[in-house]
Write a structure and sequence with these properties.
about 250 residues, three-stranded mixed sheet, mainly alpha, binds zinc ion, single chain, about 5% strand, rod-shaped
Length: about 250
């Protein structure tokens, strides 16, 4: 292969790798935000569960006060029952006693209901707290992994910059100028593989004589359509797809 073409292909690989690393680095704030959102949402679930439990406890305190009021009335009626003079008075007091007992029974049922609900709510608080703890662990691990990855990206960018300078030093300035121009105009991809008579990036069919020249890989040839620098590489061996179809059986 032509040495400049080889360097240009190497240069494109370095440019693309640097681009990927930079993009990954630029994603860091978003990734951190997503991690924070996971924690916030787990914390909100704990807060909501605790609020429901507190509401339950406050409702229970209220009905317990009601029960005390009705019990007070009940003892008052029982005292009155001792002192009644007539049958009519007796029946009236008994009616009040029955009513107060009914009220107390209703409220005690309500208290029981609230106690059962409190068990569920307490379990929910514990569950959401455990979920928060495990989410915190997972997020810490993700943060550590992200830090490691970002350090690796930075190191890789430095290495790429060094290799890029090395490749550029050996490259014909005119070829480099073409590369840089196409790179700017074509979204960071200045090189295209030609295969089956077409440019595999813009998918436009090459003129036969252009494709034939590209097959030789002996000079810088640009795609007529996208201007990318073309090179040819033989398709992977047929045996690879054979082995896939065998293993798929
Ligand atoms: Zn093209």
């Amino acid at each position: 292969m032509n040495a400049d073409l080889e360097r240009i292909i190497a240069l494109q690989k370095l440019v693309s790798a640097a681009h990927d690393a930079e993009r990954r680095l630029a994603e860091e704030p978003e990734r951190e935000k997503a991690l924070q959102a996971r924690l916030d949402s787990a914390r909100q679930r704990v807060t909501a569960a605790k609020e429901r439990l507190a509401e339950n406890q406050s409702a229970r305190r209220t009905v317990e006060k009601d029960v005390a009021v009705h019990q007070g009335r009940l003892s008052k009626f029982r005292e009155q029952a001792m002192a009644v003079k007539t049958n009519q008075e007796y029946h009236a007091v008994q009616k009040e006693i029955g009513f107060a007992q009914g009220e107390i029974k209703t409220i005690e049922d309500k208290i029981l209901e609230l106690m059962v609900e409190a068990d569920d709510l307490t379990a929910t608080v514990k569950r959401t707290e455990a979920e928060l703890a495990s989410e915190q662990k997972a997020v810490d691990a993700d943060r550590r992994a992200m830090t490691t990855e970002l350090e690796a990206m930075k190191a890789s960018l430095e290495r790429i910059a060094g290799e890029r300078a090395e490749v550029v030093r050996g490259l014909n300035p005119q070829a480099l100028a073409i590369f840089d121009l196409v790179l700017r105009r074509r979204n960071g991809v200045a090189v295209a593989q030609a295969s089956g008579g077409i440019c595999t990036v813009c998918h436009v069919r090459l003129r036969p004589q252009v494709f034939n020249s590209v097959l030789r890989n002996d000079k810088i040839i640009q795609c007529d359509s996208c201007q990318r620098i073309l090179y040819y590489m033989a398709a992977p061996a047929e045996t690879a797809s054979d082995s896939v179809s065998h293993s798929a059986q």
